[in-house]
Amino acid sequence: MTDIAELLKKHTDGVEAKLAEIKSQTEQYTPWLTEIERKLNRGVTSADGGLFGTKAGTIGHQITSSEDMTALRESGSNGATRRFEVKAITNAADSGGDLHAPNRDAAVLLPRRRLTIRNLLRVVPVTSQDVEYPEQTQRADQAAPVAEGALKPESSMAFTLKTVATKTLAHWVTASRQVLQDNSQLEALINDDLRHGLLLEEEGQILYGDGTGQNLPGIIPTATTFADPLSLVAPNQIDAIGSALLQADLTDVTADGIVLNPIDWQRMRMLKDAQGHYILGAPGADVPPVLFGRRVVATQAMNAGTFLVGPFQSGATLYDRMKATILISTEHADYFTRNLVAILGEERVGLGVRRPSSFITGTLPA
Question: What sequence ranges are listed for the domain Phage capsid-like C-terminal (predicted)?
């Protein structure tokens, strides 16, 4: 029994010592907790607009929470007169009260052009800088009726190897590291804008690239000039498109698309017959963008007053060496020491116009 009593006393003494230590530590925080409780009960705002509220309160709050009012309460003097200074009430942040609290709406971004030309083409991923494909340049068909035992005629054909070089399209912007860390939405907007800018340039290169320097060999510079096979008299714009489609079809490769400027497409859409009826359908009708059974693509990348028709799926191929990619780096000038970053948008593509004679381009009638 003596051993048990001594063991219990030993543990009891240890617990009492630990409780005394905790009490001593708690007493150190008592003034701080008391001050917090006092401010919460009185609704006091902190001077810097932190934990307890905004930068400045109402006039009544400024008076009741001022040091002069505290001194007046503690003095217990009923007849004392005190002067209190308060800030004017305006919309300014340092006024007697923050009366103006604006709402934050979504950012207004610059409009983005709808991209369409890439969707017309056959797109092939590649892993090399250059792409080669054989192109047939000659086909002499000598097929003919042959008499029994006679020598059969021989046909011939020739090929040449074509090489398509991929080109780099790129642009970049500068931003501070802090703003990207603090505003992830802004970083996403920058990335999207850089990608969109690349695709805009790509669309222009697909149509109008002249193949010199780092330009792609675009479709229009290599296409065949429109020469009306029907020799129509005073054709309208729809007539011109119909004749151009026939010219493409006469190359034995069927055209599957029409590229127009939105202004020209709208003019065609608003053409009327002699009775005043819209030729392509009433304004309230959901009219698909189709002429002569071929898809119409209206894009501002196409110059107004001109057109392009052709076999986009079989006649041209876009080679993706590297899709639009965003890179961020401090390795530019003194960017590292200034906490700046360069945000780069880059892609590598090549364009092979495989059937230039089947693409027809020209000017629309006024």
Answer: 110-363
- The C-alpha atoms of residue 243 and residue 234 are separated, in whole angstroms, by 13
CA atoms of 166 and 321, how far apart (whole Å)? 7
Domain holding 321, by residue range, is 117-142+158-363
Which of 294, 143, 155, 306 is CA-nearest to residue 223?
306
Q: Which tokens go with 165? A: 């070089």
- Gap between the Cα atoms of 310 and 150, Å rounded: 43
- Beta carbons within 10 angstroms of residue 184's beta carbon: 9
Q: Model confidence over 186-226: pLDDT tens digits?
A: 777 787 888 888 999 999 999 999 999 999 999 999 999 99
Residue 347, helix vs strand vs coil: strand
Residue 175 neighbours by CB distance under 10 Å: 16
Decide if 106 is inside a domain.
no
> What is the number of structural domains in the chain?
1
Number of helices (H) and strands (E) in the chain: give both, helices first: 10, 12
Rounded CA separation 45/64 (Å): 12
Tell me whether residue 219 is in a domain: yes
Residue 173 within a domain: yes
* pTM as predicted: 0.67
Within-domain flag for 284: yes
- Non-local (6+) Cβ contacts of 350 within 8 A are 126, 130, 131, 164, 165, 166, 167, 216, 318, 319, 321
Rounded to 5°, the CA angle 215-221-223 comes to 135
**Range 217-244 average pLDDT:** 95
